[in-house]
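In response to reviewer comment 3 from the previous cycle, which asked for concrete evidence that the modeling workflow produces usable outputs, we include below a single protein chain processed end to end. The sequence was submitted unchanged, and the resulting structure tokens are shown without manual editing.
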Amino acid sequence: MSTQKRILIMNRGEIAARIAKACRELGHVAVGVWTDNEVQAKHLEVCDEWVHLKGSTNQETYLNIPKILEMCKEYKIDGVHPGYGFLSENTEFSQTLVQNGITWIGPHPEAVRVMGDKAVSKEFAKKNGIPVVPGSTGAVPTIEEAIKIAREIKYPILLKAVAGGGGRGMRVCHNEQDVRNNFEAVQRESAAAFKCGDLLVEKYIVNPHHIEVQILADKKGNVFHFFERECSIQRRHQKIVEEAPSPFIGDDEELRQRVCTTAVRLAKAINYDSAGTVELVMGENKEFYFLEMNTRIQVEHPITEEITGIDLIVCMIQSAFGDDLKIPNQEWIKRTGHAIECRICAEDPITMLPAPGTVTGCETNFPQGIRFDNCLYKGLQVTPDFDPMVGKLVAKGIIREVAIRKMRAALDGLLIEGLKTNVPLHKVIMNEETFVKGLYSTAYIGTIRPQDKVELEMDFTSIYKKIAGVEARRMGL
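The workflow returned the following structure tokens.
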């Protein structure tokens, strides 16, 4: 193991707390940050040191590369873990750190660059024998060019931001008029969100499944996969429920092996050396295609940790500093049971739009096998400045049926006051027939519409019973 390092956690909330715990487990110093409008940042409670990142906007703080570099030098930082979001997939940031002798806890900058551009990554995958979705080989400059490609690959097609992410900069087009109506709108949305208006044209796979493979690599050329996750329940192309393993792949071990080894081949082709995720789209016929690679830790990494028993954040830090991962071979990595994650977000459970507010109270009453990664506290202000996710609720069971049952109980035992959350929507999904049978696709929210079954009337008797139960346990009754 490497000597003690000072690691700056360039993030906030639950992922910052998660990284801090991994740093401390490895004997490193976890250095957390707080900004002018985060004076009660709960993640600092598990950090060894706190550093004030002056400023109140993201541009002044979490996205300010010169200021972060200055901070690294002032506080003698050895390595930076970016978590997810913010600068986690920013080539300039990773290169700047490396050039200044600071360890980037992520893959080498060239991998960040190639995989961070959807057009470049798609071409790279294609050249290395990885199946890709039919479509443009690069950015499409004009509406007429987009229409020409659409005629060749047949409708429906997807207009997609080259530098996109988080579901932004994407529109499905079913005909030529749709392309004409949406092309410039997607360009504007992409330019505003990612400072780049370039678009791709791809064949849209009807009723697709969003399958992703967790990989981990070290600096010695070893690349391992940790099996797949199903992430098909999405709103506005953003995931809200994930599970591992995929119920769509099910017991088809030959398909699972092909999917996972494809991800490993791609990672090896670019000499990957950290944690990452290869995202694939799989059609109803179980043919699959490369979508993109996320060169960071994912929001949904806990479900993979639950079924493999391996701490991915710890391994990510070890890899960055050249330590041995202590994984002898791929066969050593086993999976047991089934895990489901519900993203708990401050949003309207029917419209699924962000609903900022202030947490006035939070109580939990969970069954065994529940993990709740969060940084909730009384007084927490959820603002439009950050992602509305406030926690990740994870249930593990010996089989999928048990995991679902535990998640239902966990959702019933989660009380967040003061905020409108999507917990009622998750409750509907966990009891909805299509989900329970594992027959859903990315069309789930739009076709099954569980949001239409959400009941918002509050059962105060039930709530008070939960609170009383929590208080009774605290008092030892």
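The longest helix spans residues 176-194. We consider this sufficient to address the reviewer's concern, and the full set will be provided in the supplementary archive.
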